[in-house]
Write a structure and sequence with these properties.
Elements (H helix, E strand, L loop, with lengths): L5 H7 L15 H12 L6 H6 L1 H15 L15
């Protein structure tokens, strides 16, 4: 294998420079937690909430109302069941 070939340089070479510093990517679960906080249900365990289909549907509707200004008058009050 010749020293001028690209694959050889990758195999033998050492990377130069530093990695860029960035914040970690946001996970799907993080988005759910943020949405629940905006609706006022930040203290509720979302996994347990998702087990109850009717309650989960109400939460999803409430979050969707945050994103749709024309539906802002339709508020849904969510009361966690214990």
């Amino acid at each position: 294998m010749g020293e001028r070939r690209g694959i050889y340089r990758v195999w033998v070479g050492k990377p130069e420079g530093k990695r860029s510093l960035r914040r970690p990517r946001q996970r799907w679960e993080d988005n759910i937690r943020i949405d629940l906080q905006e609706v006022g249900c930040g203290s509720i365990d979302w996994i347990e909430l998702a087990q109850d289909r009717n309650m989960w549907r109400d939460v999803v509707k409430a979050v969707m109302n945050l994103w749709a200004p024309q539906n802002a008058g339709n508020s849904i009050k969510i009361i966690p069941q214990r």
